[in-house]
Amino acid sequence: MIQRRSKRRLMNEINVVPYIDVMLVLLIIFMITAPLIQPSQIELPEIGKSSAPPAEPLEVMIAANGNLTLRDRAGADKEQQVDRNQLVELIRARQAQNTDQPVVIAADKNVRYEEVIQVMDLLQQQQIRKIGLLTKSK
């Protein structure tokens, strides 16, 4: 008896035909859909839109003894001692001229926080807008 052995050869080649088929299908899909895609247009903002620079804030300073001082940074740093009624009148007059006039409150570090809140509350009750607190950076 003759023994016959079946020898199987190892296949060391890759069948690339399926890959070529997939690539051709994708190529056809992209060729059909590419003309249908329209590029979008983006409207970018322009630089010249803002006509005026922001106004310098009015600074309400509260001293350690509780005295109020109003500093106008736009007016060459003029400072004037005011009471609470004068403070409201002066700020209203400035905001009547410029509606975007900001107001910042600066207090001595020894002033009780309650006094700062009272001044802020007074300004808010008198319909004064754009009130902020001024802090010292280290």
UniProtKB/TrEMBL annotation:
Q: Which interval of the chain is the signal sequence?
A: none
The alphabetical list of record keywords is: Cell cycle, Cell division, Cell inner membrane, Cell membrane, Membrane, Protein transport, Transmembrane, Transmembrane helix, Transport
* MF terms in GO: transmembrane transporter activity
Topology with respect to the bilayer? Single-pass membrane protein; Single-pass type II membrane protein
Tell me if Cell inner membrane is a UniProt keyword of this record. yes
Q: Where in the cell is it found?
A: Cell membrane
Query: PANTHER family annotated for this entry?
Result: EXBD MEMBRANE COMPONENT OF PMF-DRIVEN MACROMOLECULE IMPORT SYSTEM, TOL-PAL SYSTEM PROTEIN TOLR
Question: What is this protein's name?
Answer: Biopolymer transport protein ExbD/TolR
Which organism was this protein described from? Answer: Nitrosomonas europaea (strain ATCC 19718 / CIP 103999 / KCTC 2705 / NBRC 14298)
